[in-house]
Amino acid sequence: MVSRRGTGLKGRAEVPGDKSVSHRALILGALAVGETRVTGLLEGQDVLDTAAAMRAFGAQVERTGEGAWSIHGVGTGGFAEPEDVIDCGNSGTGVRLIMGAAATSPITATFTGDASLRSRPMGRVTDPLALFGAAAVGREGGRLPLTLIGARDPQPVRYTVPVPSAQVKSAVLLAGLGAPGQTQVIEREATRDHTERMLAGFGAEITVEEGPEGRVITLTGQPELRPQSIAVPRDPSSAAFPVCAALIAEGSDVLVPGIGLNPTRAGLYETLREMGADLTYENPRDEGGEPVADLRARFSGAMRGIEVPPERAASMIDEYPVLSVVAACAEGPTVMRGVGELRVKESDRIDAMAQGLRACGVEVEEGEDWWIVHGLGAGGVPGGARVESRLDHRIAMAFLVLGLASQRAVTVDDGQPIATSFPIFEPLMTGLGAAIARSNG
Ligand code: S3P
C-alpha cells in the first residue's frame, strides 16, 4: 500500500470496537451459563479467531448482525476438549487468554498461530499456569505450537506478574476461575483492566487493592458467571491512527466519536496534548462502565518532542509506533524509555519503526528498552521509502500515516495485517480524504 500527502483529512471517523474488550467478551461469554449478547464487536481477524476457538471449546457462538454476536457459554470449568489444533492467527491476546481459560479444565489442547505469533514468548503465560497444575510442551523457548494439558485438580495461585502485561494478568485470572478458593494476581504497574471490570460485570467476586507491592487483584474461583449484554466501546488504539494522521497532515480537522478512554488505555492522548497537539475531548460520558468521549483532532503544526514518562508506557503500549510518526513530524527529540515490551509484540516494534523511519530520512537512536526519535518539524520528513510491515498491523498503519505528511510517498510492503485489528482502515481513511491506495509494485 502507498500513502502520500494531500489536502488534509476532514470529517467523522467511526472506528471499530475495542479489540481487547472484544476478545474478553467472547471468552467470558463462553464461560458463562446462558446467552451473552455483544454489540459493537470488532470483526477483525484476531477476534474472529477467538470466536472460532470458543466454538472449538464447545460454546455456541453466532453472528446475529453487523457487530452483533450471541454466545451460549458452557460454564466455568465446562470447556470441552477441542478436536483439532486451535489456530489463533496473529493474536497474542487470543492465545494467551484462551490458554489461561483452558488451563484449569481437565482437557488437552494444542495452539498455534502465524509466523509472528509462533515467534513470541509464551513462557510468561505457561509458567504461572504451571502453578495451577497445568503442563505445557512447546518449542524451544516455550514457543508455539504448544500443547497445554489442563490441571485435573487445580490449585489457586498467588502470582506477581514479572512484566507489565495485561495478557499475563488476564491469563492467570481466567485460570483462577476454574480453581477453588482465591487466586491473587499482583501487578507492580497498572495495565489495562478490562478483564477485572468484565469479570465483575459477569458476577465474579473480584477485588482490587493498592498495596505496597502494587495492585493486588483477588478473585474467588469457581463462580457461576451470569451472562451479560455488552456494548463494546470503540477502540482507542484504532482511533490513534486517524487522530495522529489529522495532527500531522496540514489542513485536517477530524472527529472520532465514542472512543473508550479508560485511563489504562488513554496514555497516547495525554502525551499528544503535552506535545502541543490540538486535540480535544468532546461530550465526555460513561458507556457500559467505561469512560467515553468524542475526540477532535486538528492539524497541529507546532508540536514539540517530549520525554514520555516511562510510568505511562503500559497505558499506551500499542501506540508507540504511531507516536513515533508524530514525533518525527514534531520539533526536536521525543524520548521513549521503559518500553522493552515493544520488542516482543507482533514484531520487534522498536526495530521495525527505527528501520522504516531511518529509510524515510528520520534519525532514530535505540537501546534494549528505549528509543529516541529526532523530529524534523511539520512537513520536514523526506519519506520516499518502501518499508516492511513485518506481519504487524500497527507498523503498517503507522507508516501509512507517515506518508500522509511526508514530502514523498511512503510504501508499505504488505497491508494485509491491518485486517487483524482495523479491517475498515483503508475505506475509513480514504473517506476522510487520505491519499492511501493499493500499490502495484
Ligand atoms: C492486550 C495487552 C497488551 C497489548 C495487546 C492487547 C490485551 O499486551 O499490547 O495489544 O488485550 O490484554 P501485553 O499485555 O502483553 O502488554
From TrEMBL:
EC number(s) reported in the record: 2.5.1.19
Gene Ontology terms for molecular function: 3-phosphoshikimate 1-carboxyvinyltransferase activity
Keyword Amino-acid biosynthesis: yes
Matches recorded under SUPFAM superfamilies: EPT/RTPC-like
Keywords for the protein's UniProt record, in alphabetical order: Amino-acid biosynthesis, Aromatic amino acid biosynthesis, Cytoplasm, Transferase
UniProt subcellular location: Cytoplasm
Species in which this protein is naturally found: Pseudoroseicyclus aestuarii
Domain Enolpyruvate transferase: 6-427
NCBIfam families, alphabetized: aroA
Active-site residues annotated for this sequence: 318
Superkingdom of origin organism: Bacteria
Residues noted as binding 3-phosphoshikimate in the record, renumbered to the chain: 19-20, 24, 165, 167, 318, 345
Record-level GO BP terms: amino acid biosynthetic process; aromatic amino acid family biosynthetic process; chorismate biosynthetic process
Name the UniProt record assigns to this protein: 3-phosphoshikimate 1-carboxyvinyltransferase
Gene Ontology CC terms: cytoplasm
Substrates-to-products reaction catalysed: 3-phosphoshikimate + phosphoenolpyruvate = 5-O-(1-carboxyvinyl)-3-phosphoshikimate + phosphate
Role: Catalyzes the transfer of the enolpyruvyl moiety of phosphoenolpyruvate (PEP) to the 5-hydroxyl of shikimate-3-phosphate (S3P) to produce enolpyruvyl shikimate-3-phosphate and inorganic phosphate.
Signal peptide: none
Assigned protein family: Belongs to the EPSP synthase family.
Keyword presence, rRNA-binding: no
Subunit and interaction comment: Monomer.
